[in-house]
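Researcher: Next sequence.
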Amino acid sequence: MRLIIITIPDSILSFGWEFGRGLSVEHLSVENRDVLRLFIVTAASIGAILTTIFSLLNGIFYVFPLHYILPIILVVYFYPERGVFFSLGIGLMYISLIYLLGNSDPILIAIATAWFAIFIAIGVVASSYAIRLREEQTRVRKVLDNSQDGIFCFDLKDLRIREINSKCASWLKYDKQDLIGKEISVIWTDKEEQKQFVTDVKQELKQEHKHGEREARFRGQDGTVLRFIISAMLVTRRHILCSAIDITRSKIVDEEIIKTLDELEHQVKERTADLERMNEKLRAEIIECRRFESTVLSGHPLQPKREDT
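Model: Next structure:
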């Protein structure tokens, strides 16, 4: 009996510890995410090779080629630029095993050659499509990052920020990487306002209405309260993509204008009241002056004005 000792790298153990604690792939570090991808691709490739060896040694010739499609698709998904070279390499590995263990069966070799061509075709077509898709994603990401509006996306279930552009993060005095993966409540502290927004958006999604604009108060990293006009650009069952416009300065200016107008109105009212009092006093003096003139012209002695008792 042979004792087989398997040494597991510390990085894989670290990943297993994080995964065992219930963290999703999105919450893993970049290093652990790369280790996970490499581990999955390696396991799928070794599984396909071992299945081929077992099948050829036991006279099974029709099922095992399908197992090579999985690692090719995984490599195309994780590493699109390497998909063609990987499909070529694993295809050569497959056809080599057929030549070595297939007992020089011409039918089996012909079938293996056809499968080799299929592997190459899958790698070329899938890689080109994946590369174009990644380029499109990069282009969209650049457009969002260079947008003058703030843009952020958060999950409807766990309310975590999935993406935020640099413009929006700079308004909030954050680096964008510091916010990705955090709960939206870190910047949107008013939970009632947040809950109402999500409820309204879901309702509008069911009724297929246009998503309206709403005013929201966000809190920056330095604790300042910022005011935004937010609107839902795209809503799916899982995510909300929102645009945000910072109106904090314009709001402050509006409030200062309103305050100034109120002060001017108060001053005008006070000035108007003063003028009315002066007008009443002047009117009383005019009446007194006319009474004096009337008395003097009539030749009667001036009677003192009786005060009201």
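Model: Strands lie at 150-155, 161-164, 213-219, 225-235, 239-246. Residues 10-145 form one domain.
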